[in-house]
Amino acid sequence: MSLLDRKLLRDISAMRGQVMTISLVIAAGVAVFVASISTYDSLLAGRDGFYLAGRMPQLFVTLKRAPLSILPQIDEIPGVAAVQARIVRDVIVDRRASPLPVSARIVSIDSGGDEPLARLHVRRGMAPPPGDAASVAINEAFAEANGVSPGEDMRVMLNSRVQTFKVAAVALSPEFVYAVKPGLPIPDDRLYAIIWMDRHAAEAAFDLKAAFNDLLVSLAPGADAQSVIAELDRRLEPYGSAGAVERRDQPSNRFLEDELNQQKVMSVTIPFVFFAVAAFLLNVTLGRLVAAQREQIAALKAMGFAAFPLAAHYLKLVAIIVLLASLLGIPAGFAFGAAMVESYRGFFRLPDLAFRITPWSVAAAVGASFAMAAVGVLSALRRVTVLAPAVAMRPDAPIAFRRSWIEGLIAPSSIRPHRMMILRNVAGRPLRTALTVIGVAFAVPMVVLGLFWRDAIDHMVDVQFNLVERGNVSVVFRQPVSRAIIGDLSREPGVLAVESQRIVPVRFRAGHRAYLTSVVGLPDRSELRRPHDAALRPIEVSSEGIVLTRRLAERLDVKAGDAIAVEVMEGARRKRDLPVSAVVDETIGMGSYMPITALNHLAGESDLVSAAVLYADSAAMPALSERFKNLPMIESVTVKSYTLASFMDKIANLVLVGAGVLTLFGVIIAVGVVYNSARIGLQERARELASLRVLGFTRAEVARILFAEFALEIGLGVPLGLAASQGLIGLIARFHSNESFQIPGVIGAQTYAVAALVVIASALASAYVVRRRIDQLDLVSVLKTRD
Amino acid sequence: MPVTAGSNRLSLKPVFHATGLCKTYLMGQVAVHALKDVDLDIFEREFVVLLGPSGSGKSTLLNILGGLDAPTSGEAWWRDHNLVGANDAELTRYRREHVGFVFQFYNLIPSLTVLENVALVTEIASNPLDPREALGLVGLDQRLDHFPSQLSGGEQQRVAVARAIAKSPDVLLCDEPTGALDYETGKGVLAAIARANAQLGTTTVIITHNAAIAGMADRVLRLGGGRIIGDERNPRRLSPDELRW
Ligand SMILES: Nc1ncnc2c1ncn2[C@@H]1O[C@H](COP(=O)(O)OP(=O)(O)OP(=O)(O)O)[C@@H](O)[C@H]1O
Ligand SMILES: [Mg+2]
């Protein structure tokens, strides 16, 4: 072993606490980076694989009714590669075991699941072959949530009577990777099923012989989607087409896409923040380490060691730290990524969603860590080696302590000398003090970053489900009906208030931008659904125009006062230009509102309602649900608390894994920053403190001098960090918001408190370690050497 | 003020009393004997010079007397303070209340001015001099507001002396106080130490390599290989002005 290597090993063993904590910080960065990139790639591969094997269509059309005989005309539209005509209907499932009505979407299949488009991936059993009218396939999410297996019966309400089918298969479809009941912002697998049945059974059930009401279209390579959509809409309009929807707006895909984007953003932003902090820490720590070895370096250089082996010597130190970090970080990244993918499994039903490590992410993480550490070390080394050996061998010129301006403010004679030491050390090295304060300040948002998700989701849910949606049950009718039904509902036992809603499918256009959605018509002074603005003030839906949610307004690139074209996608399909009367802030989805009368007028209909929001006594809820299961005009029922509970249950997993790990890493960083500041502080002051001990100062007095500086740095850093958290989280929340969810940059008081406490606790723990070192200061040895 | 000999001013009562002091460093297989069975008495107000070649155990002995280090075996007392069995807190109190140190490398606090460096110690002493007065004794009363980095080595060493005598210690222990200084400056520092010994009656022990300095002492102890190999009383103390080297 060369002598330099021996020195390296001794240095490492002397600084093992610092080497370990710096390695942990880098390891956290590496783990988050590897896990995020790999999770993203795994989801992407899972989706792409399934979309390919399952022949995911590009366009989706819903219509009233069209004869199969028109299909050849659709097929010949230039750019259309394949079509699949289906019967799709929403029904109620009769499940005694379920406390609430279960809705289902029936989707017809022609070829026993091996469809030309939206092909099924059968998990268990066998999908009903052509002609089999007695069995069905159901989606895996529902089967798992309700414990339904092949061989069991499904009782479905078809045309007001219950019909029983045998479950022959449990399957997945690229169309329903994320199956959410239409009109609901979030999925509830217990209450929503996809039922695939053979076309013959569906034709009979819905009286759609040789007809279809749903069309899937795939495009030829290079086809222009917009022109195909225009042509499809033109040809299908007579059959009540609601307009072709692109894949990007297909609900399941949109959600998947949003989540993927979020994962992508996360794989960049969060590791970046981690790396930035780790780099800062490395730069400061290793820079100070090299500076402390200045005389040694100069002596080695004077003895004839060339610059290169010296640089190589310090790079070896970096390599060892990075190696240690990789040994910890890469397996942690694997585990974190695998857990993330596992927690996505409940959300996204992809047949082969497996965690795959992305090799370049490992190489990039390790390479980037090494590069950043190397820059820190080499720049410090350069500062030493540019000096002539004779200069460098002398101790670093003592910093010119001056009477700082602060002393002018207070009578200097009133400050006792040991306090003066503290003051001058802090003020005399403003850069170093600032770096330490910044380091501590960084530690706080790292902890907040892990914890704030809970606050954000709580806030999101609170705004959407307490402020905006104030009812606790909502029902959707089979078709628009007379307002009289509202009176009927209000007479049901336990119902305290009912409000009507009208939901009309529309297409908005503004310039070249278009968006297919539905408008919710609200009654005057609606109490149970109340749109809010950004300041959480309720907004009146005025009859002068249309109210858009912020995300939708952004998508259409319009603001309040602009006009948009509204095309009703049902009935007489009227078109009108309407002004945007207000933009409201909602945390989930991209909705729009109009007064119910204005909306009915726009649709060219009289006083119709298509849904109702109820406020019911929670004690009466079970009886009410049971009753709704048997009302034929009700297509679906949603009980807010139930849906919310299932959502929170699912999201809790993701939050627990994601935020839990981030919090852990945040804590590691906090400890790393604070511990290293304390240790370096001690290292730099050891001689001075030992001198004080020799002069008769007690351990406690000496510790107090060091800790006063440290406490000052913590005391400045923590509030600064709390302030910085708001900015960072605001930014992260902005990056992470998507069309499905708007993550609010909200940080709870508790989160702030926990973050501050974590940093303070790590400061106390570091102080404890440093205090023990002060007790072990070698008094004799400081007398033998000069600075 | 030249100090003349007058052994009658010395009491016969030893303030330091050590017997059988041994200090052994175990370095793997090798044992380094820094002190071997040293017996020693130092009397009140006495001015003692420790001479000896490098590695002979001078610093080790001084550090034990100053409560900075513990012997491997043997006994050491300062008046009724047992310096061997005492715990860290007791030794700290001993140093704080009774001992003034001057070291070869000054060990000043760089962030404090000359005056503050001295005041730092007088604050924790029970019967201190005025820091300005102490700095007057070493001729530095014009440089009160300067920082150590603005002083020459000799001036820094004089600040260290002022700091050591400012608390009017019972004992002044100096380890090569002139080691890093030139002839003239060294004399100035020695004069300051001698003055403290004469005026304040401080028991003083100085380590030096410079045999010429021995002329100032009441008594010269020679160390060699960890043992005391010579103990001579000077018939007449020279003043620092009379020293030549
Ligand atoms: N920490 C230590 N570990 C091992 N040996 C030590 C240690 N400190 C001192 N020694 C040894 O003890 C012996 C006496 O050391 P000491 O410092 O007392 O010598 P000294 O007489 O003051 O020398 P100098 O005039 O060079 O300062 C030396 O041989 C030295 O090598
Ligand atoms: Mg010595």
Question: If you had to describe this structure to a student in words, what would you say it looks like?
Answer:
The complex is a heterodimer of chains A (787) and B (245). Chain A is of the alpha+beta class. Chain A is 53% helix and 19% strand. In chain A, helix 1 packs across helix 9, helix 7 runs parallel beside helix 10 (359-385) and helix 14 crosses helix 20. The mean pLDDT of chain A is 85. In chain B, strand 7, helix 6 (183-200) and strand 8 form a beta-alpha-beta unit. In chain B, the strands form two sheets. A six-stranded mixed β-sheet of chain B has the order 6-7-8-3-9-10, with helices on both faces. Chain B has a four-stranded antiparallel β-sheet with strand order 2-1-4-5, covered by helices on one side. The structure holds adenosine-5'-triphosphate and magnesium ion. Magnesium ion binds at residues 58-59, 175 of chain B.
Features:
heterodimer, A: 787 residues, alpha+beta, six-stranded mixed barrel, six-stranded mixed beta barrel, elongated, B: 245 residues, alpha/beta, Rossmann fold, 28% strand, binds adenosine-5'-triphosphate
Describe how the helices and strands are arranged:
The complex is a heterodimer of chains A (787) and B (245).
Chain A (H helix, E strand, L loop, with lengths): L2 H12 L1 H38 L5 E9 L3 H5 L4 E7 L1 E6 L8 E8 L11 E5 L9 E5 H7 L6 E6 L2 E12 L19 E7 H8 L4 E9 L5 H12 L7 E3 L4 H42 L1 H9 L4 H39 L13 H27 L3 H5 L11 H5 L7 H12 L1 H39 L4 E10 L1 H7 L4 E16 L2 E10 L23 E4 H7 L6 E6 L6 E10 L7 E4 H8 L4 E9 L4 H8 L5 E6 H55 L4 H38 L12 H27 L3 H6 L3
Parallel strand pairs in A: 4-9, 6-8, 14-18, 15-17
Antiparallel strand pairs in A: 1-10, 1-11, 2-10, 3-4, 3-7, 5-8, 6-9, 7-8, 12-19, 12-20, 13-14, 13-16, 13-19, 15-18, 16-17
Helix pairs in contact in A: 1-9, 2-7, 2-9, 2-10, 2-19, 7-10, 7-14, 7-19, 9-10, 9-19, 13-20, 14-19, 14-20, 14-21, 19-20, 19-21, 20-21
Chain B lengths: L13 E14 L2 E14 L3 E5 L6 H8 L7 E6 L2 E2 L5 H11 E4 L11 H9 L8 H7 L15 H14 L4 E5 L7 H18 L2 E6 L10 E6 L2 E7 L12
Parallel strand pairs in B: 3-8, 3-9, 6-7, 7-8
Antiparallel strand pairs in B: 1-2, 1-4, 4-5, 9-10
